[in-house]
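Render this sequence as a predicted structure.
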Amino acid sequence: MIDAHQHFWNFDPVKDAWITPEMGVLRRNFLPHDFQPFLAGFGITGTVAVQADQSIEETKFLIDLASTYSFIKGVVGWVELRAKNLESQLELFDGKQILKGFRHIVQAESDAAFMLHPDFLRGIRLISKRGFTYDILIKSHQLDMAVLFSESLPEARLVVDHLAKPPIGSGGWKEWAAGIEKFRSLDHVYCKVSGMVTEADPKNLKSENFRIYLDVITDVFGPERIMYGSDWPVCLLATDYAGTLKIATDYFSSFTETERLSIFSANAIRFYGL
């Protein structure tokens, strides 16, 4: 099993200002030795470590961790994708084959057309030419922008993180589903079954409450373009690692063995080149 989305950090209240005092469980260091019990406990054979801070230092930090802990099979880092010196930034990581792609925290951007700006599109085209992937981190109200972005980049390998954060807690899904539907024909775009528990009511995490959202994702992307990720340790805001995994395994338990292998392993290996 590949966990296609998790994080590590040395907590710093300034650098990690997004971790507010209300998120007390996250206000400490989370490092690979904290994750290692899950390897044997849940049959995890590898992970993709994804950036949580928008800095070159973050990318270097994750690469360094991967050089020590072999279960980290890939890193999704950060560079300033809009920068004129992007090529120079990328040259810093020449030879670092563990670096598979990049992500920008678009969900925090107030500009409704952020991903459509020429400098950002130029950056994605440049990393794509170099063989890197791009993780799309958005909220559900940004779906239309993400679809236009994806349509303009057929050469890129793209993956939507966290189902684009549907409003699971309120039970709203139709508007989100209409946005997700537009990815159906975009074969170069994948979707991560991740981050659901923190969009739900933490006091009501029954597997059936996630079914409609997983129904939509499975119908639109198909088992060949879905990959599982825990979003650990952020998931701890709602439940533990076992609780997060159980929601996915319960839903996909009726799928064929080949389909489950794709969702929980093969798709991530193929997409990221692990």
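Summary. The first strand starts at residue 2 and ends at 6. The chain has a mean pLDDT of 96.
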